[in-house]
């Protein structure tokens, strides 16, 4: 929801006119941290990660170390490499305890808690995620970090939604709408409120929030949000049997998505148009839209979409009693499914092989450690035996 930014941590003190201000070593080090975050936010994320790992070895101040660790955690969270993100967030939180500045310590703490909440939500551990967002709310309130408060509130609302606790989800999202300084939080709240009401079959209220989100997405020039919102509005029309209105909205989605290379969204919209045509018994137009979507899915390599479009074309062929074409589409669908299963099986085998080899290496290491320990004990016993013999000989000589 929020961009990677540690503004409270990376502010550079402005110089007074015609004066020379000598910066402390910590401030100089902080400038590098600022530059790395700027590099990450500009889109050169891999370079930012590489430089962060290098600079982390030289960082001397806890606040800068914690910030660099959080940057790595953001990188892995974005790529859904969750265990790595959790690891680096934990390391950042440990370093955070060494920071002297209370306000800075609290801000970094709250950012770390937010990452924990996001990571555990993506893992599907909603109660754990809830715990981290509640801790984040407490931390952000302590030093009046308003933006982070609403960031955590929005995260908590998402957990309530996932847990089907619509009452608390609605309450939290509506509170988020009171915060006018973060368009992303407001936009996410509009979309999620629309989802909740639509899932409850209150389509009028669902569309009300979707349309508010649509207005904001146009104002902020967010084509992805605009496409997703329009897609949801179209689905609401479809559920209300307003099929022609749904088709009109879906065509808007296709136009937005194609223009902005939102390929997956465009395919979903095309599939929805095809289904709407089937409902209208307009099989010819449905066939055209599904065939076009299928070719795009093939060019993009989207296997799941290919199966879906083949199955829909088979459905149309059956409805038109064209059983030869139906059999051909079924055969092609089955072939793609077999390919998917084969790929997944190979992937599973490779994963098992990696686990096996890792286990073997660990076993070898343990064996070597045991062998070395045994040899060490034998040497120690031999040494002890020699010392005992020498001692006995010495005592014997003294006695005699």
Q: Can you walk me through this structure?
A:
With 400 residues, this protein is mostly helical. The chain is 82% helix and 0% strand. The longest helix has 77 residues, at 323-399. It starts with 6 loop residues before the first helix and ends with a helix.
Q: What is the H/E order?
A: HHHHHHHHHHHHHHHHH
- Total number of beta strands: 0
- Rg, rounded, reads 30 Å
Query: Can you tell me the overall shape?
Result: globular
Main sheet makeup? none
Q: Low-confidence runs (pLDDT<50, min 5 residues)?
A: 1-22
**How would you classify the helix and strand content by structural class?**
mainly alpha
Count of DSSP helices?
Answer: 17
Q: What is the overall pLDDT average? A: 83
Amount of helix: over 70%
**Terminal Cα separation, in Å?**
90 Å
Strand content: under 5%
Give the topology, please.
Layout: H1 7-10, H2 25-41, H3 45-56, H4 62-78, H5 82-96, H6 102-123, H7 126-142, H8 146-162, H9 166-176, H10 183-199, H11 203-219, H12 223-239, H13 243-259, H14 263-279, H15 283-300, H16 303-319, H17 323-399
Which features characterize this protein?
17 helices; mainly alpha; disordered N terminus; 400 residues
Structure summarized in a few sentences:
This protein has 400 residues and is mainly α. 82% of the residues lie in helices and 0% in strands.
């Amino acid at each position: 929801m929020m961009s990677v930014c540690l503004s409270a941590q990376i502010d550079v003190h402005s110089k007074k006119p015609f004066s020379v201000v000598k910066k402390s070593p910590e401030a100089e080090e902080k400038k590098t941290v600022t530059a790395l975050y700027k590099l990450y936010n500009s889109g050169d994320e891999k370079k930012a990660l590489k430089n962060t790992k290098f600079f982390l070895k030289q960082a001397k101040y806890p606040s800068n170390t914690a910030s660099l660790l959080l940057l790595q955690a953001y990188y892995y969270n974005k790529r859904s490499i969750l265990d790595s993100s959790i690891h680096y967030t934990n390391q950042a939180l440990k370093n955070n305890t060494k920071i002297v500045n209370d306000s800075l310590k609290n801000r970094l703490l709250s950012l770390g808690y937010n990452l924990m909440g996001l990571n555990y939500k993506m893992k599907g551990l909603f109660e754990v995620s809830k715990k981290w967002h509640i801790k984040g709310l407490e931390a952000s309130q302590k030093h009046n970090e308003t933006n982070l408060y609403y960031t955590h509130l929005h995260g908590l609302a998402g957990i309530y939604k996932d847990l089907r606790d619509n009452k608390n989800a609605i309450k939290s999202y509506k509170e988020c709408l009171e915060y006018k300084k973060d368009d992303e939080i407001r936009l996410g709240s509009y979309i999620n409120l629309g989802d909740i009401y639509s899932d409850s079959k209150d389509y009028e209220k669902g569309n009300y929030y979707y349309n508010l989100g649509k207005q904001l997405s146009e104002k902020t020039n967010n084509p992805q949000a605009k496409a997703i919102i329009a897609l949801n509005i179209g689905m609401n029309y479809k559920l209300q049997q307003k099929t022609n209105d749904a088709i009109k909205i879906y065509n808007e989605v296709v136009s937005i998505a194609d223009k902005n290379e939102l390929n997956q969204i465009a395919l979903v919209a095309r599939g929805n148009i095809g289904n709407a045509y089937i409902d209208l018994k307009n099989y010819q137009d449905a066939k055209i839209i599904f065939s076009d979507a299928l070719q795009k899915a093939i060019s993009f390599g989207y296997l799941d979409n290919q199966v879906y479009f083949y199955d829909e074309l088979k459905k149309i062929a059956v409805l038109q009693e064209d059983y030869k074409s139906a059999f051909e589409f079924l055969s092609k669908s089955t072939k793609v499914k077999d390919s998917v299963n084969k790929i997944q099986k190979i992937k599973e085998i490779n994963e098992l092989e990696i686990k096996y080899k890792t286990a073997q290496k660990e076993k070898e290491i343990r064996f070597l450690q045991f062998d070395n320990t045994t040899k060490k004990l034998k040497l120690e016993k031999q040494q002890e035996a020699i010392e005992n013999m020498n001692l006995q000989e010495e005592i014997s000589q003294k006695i005699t």
